[in-house]
Amino acid sequence: MANPEILVLDFGSQTTQLIARRLRECGVYTQIYPYNHPLEQIRAQAPKGIILSGGPASVYDSQAYHCDPEILSLNLPLLGICYGMQWLVHALGGRVARALSQEFGRAHLENLHDHPLLAGIENSSVVWMSHGDRVEVLPADFEVLAQSGHAPFCAIAHKHQPIYGLQFHPESAHSAQGGRILSNFAQLCGCTQEWNMQDFLTQQIQSIQNQVGSDRVLCAVSGGVDSSVVAALCARALKEQVEVVFVDHGLLRASERDQVANMFADLQIPLHVLDAQDLFLSRLKGVVDPEKKRQIIGHAFIEVFEQKARELSKQGVIKWLAQGTLYPDVIESVSAKGPSAVIKSHHNVGGLPEKMNLKLLEPLRELFKDEVRALGARLGLPEKMLARHPFPGPGLAIRILGEVNTPSLELLRQADSIFIDALHAEGLYHEVWQAFCVLLNVFSVGVMGDKRTYDNTIALRAVQASDGMSAQCAPLPFDFLERVANSIINQVPGINRVVYDITSKPPGTIEWE
Ligand code: XMP
User: Fold this and answer.
1) Which of 141-155, 377-391, 436-450 has the weakest average pLDDT?
2) Which entry of 115, 131, 169, 347 is annotated as an active-site residue?
């Protein structure tokens, strides 16, 4: 595979992968490595520049993360972001200390100095801050390019060497012109900026072929975009070495099993449909803790896959399991490359049993949802499949608060299809990034036909997002919400109250569990 033009060394920020993604958007092939990526390997990869990411630590702590200081002698352009900038300042003899008040959220950049790093960036441009430490004293030969209300050293540069630092996060979507700043850095590095999704496809096909060799692969699909793209990618790279499997775990939405089977028939990719409803539902009996549910489901999936793999191995041993893990699943479950914090374990990452008999093939691990859709389009997948809302691997189990059982699943399925059908009927489905119902298992009093009811509650959730890492409540028309609420209450016996979830992410998450 081609060498990356820019290396990102990860100190554990939740947004490190967004740095790579913004660089991909401006045509730069980038790879992320842990902060302690060995110097010999960096030399062998011969990148044109290096970015040091943000991270949760403090450079002056005894537990701080340090990259090899020799990185400063490589004579390569270096850009430090947040902790990365503080590390550069610290390593070069400046001073970093705890800020009097932490700074999270929007700030305005006041440009003090013309510099190619900030070329084209308007004064007062909004940038996204997230830091508790700040630079107090610059190292020798550094100059300040911009400041903000709380950060006097918001953008800095060495006067004679290509070393730069940003206290804010240019990779965040909230930094209005952050992509332009990263593109400016790529230009300072002399990058060609010609990389595109077709190159990613070619690289991935080659990488899958190299990784797998002549082995056989089991590819698990859920019918969602991610796993369907993986299946198409594996089918393209490995032809009949891949077996595509769909597990009906009993936690699917109404008619989902048939829809998935038809979709793969149209794609002419052979599909094994496995019925494992009893296994999943019996294991989930009595379980209410969200993390436990996720783990049980993760384990049950692997059990079913391994059993099928053994069966299919009669025609040649299956050694790999391909899945549609995306970057947001990885970053919120485990530390991807650096030391980041765990938010929740997504079933296809954190829930895996430690000892698994299949090796994992996760070709989308570095991508975000919208990039996966672009890749799917390159692979020729139909628009109707690519435009489907995301659906989580643990399915409806994480949309039922409390115990998952057949009556609850039935209630949720009915309500959910009323909501989704209404979104389609009123032309709103493609206006939102994801929409679904949650069964709250909160009982309240109502009145229907002069009779008292004491029934369950449905929450409607609809969000706008671009990658699932952050999201906002979708401002659906109020009269539409009212119509959906009425339909659910009138058509689903057992539901007498419907609420609309207006929480954004953060502080909430998109799913309720
Ligand atoms: P959260 O709830 O973490 O969701 O804000 C972000 C996006 O990820 C989906 N999601 C999952 N997808 N396995 C998946 O494949 C999971 O365990 C999982 N949990 C959440 C969620 O639907 C949203 O699109």
Assistant:
1) 377-391
2) 169
Q: Which among 238, 229, 211 has a CA at the least distance from the CA of 1?
A: 211
d(CA 102, CA 109): 17
Closest approach atom of ligand 1 to CA 391: 22
Instruction: Give the distance from CA 130 to its chain's centroid.
Output: 19
Q: Are 134 and 96 in contact (CB under 8 A)?
A: yes
Q: Which is the catalytic residue, given 82, 189, 191, 234? A: 82
Q: What are residue 418's phi and psi, to 5 degrees?
A: -65, -45
- The conformational region for residue 190 under phi > 0 = left, psi -120 to 50 = alpha, else beta, is left
pLDDT 10s digits, 376-397? 999 988 888 899 998 998 999 9
Let me know the angle formed at the C-alpha of 134 by 75 and 184, rounded to the nearest 5 degrees.
45
CA distance 143 to 156: 6
Is the minimum distance from the CB of 510 to ligand 1 under 6 angstroms? yes
54 Cβ contact list (under 8 Å, min separation 6): 11, 13, 15, 16, 81, 82, 83, 84, 130, 131, 169
Residue 425 token pair: 């009927």
Whether 189 is catalytic is no
Residue 218 one-letter amino acid: L
Coil/strand/helix, residue 130:
strand
- Ligand 1 centre distance from Cα of residue 168 (Å): 27
333 lines ligand 1 (CB under 6 A): no
Annotation says 347 is catalytic:
no
Ligand 1 pocket test, pick from 291, 346, 400 with the greatest ligand atom count within 8 Å of Cβ, gives 346
Three-state DSSP class for residue 302? helix
- Over residues 473-493, the mean pLDDT reads 98
**From the centroid of its chain, how far is CA 404?**
26
Tokens 């060609």 correspond to 192
* Other CB atoms within 10 A of residue 48 CB: 18
Mark whether 219 is an active-site residue.
Answer: no
How far apart CA 137 and CA 93 sit, in angstroms, is 9
- Residue 66: CB partners within 8 Å, gap ≥ 6? 35, 36, 87, 91
390 touches 224 (CB < 8 A): yes
Could you tell me if the CB of 133 is within 6 A of ligand 1? no
Per-residue three-class SS string for 238-289: HHHHEEEEEEECCCCCCCHHHHHHHHHHHHCCCEEEEECHHHHHHHHCCCCC
Contacts of 446 (CB under 8 A, 6+ apart): 452, 453, 454, 455, 496, 497
pLDDT value of position 335: 45
pLDDT of residue 135: 93
| pLDDT for residue 119 is more than 80 | yes
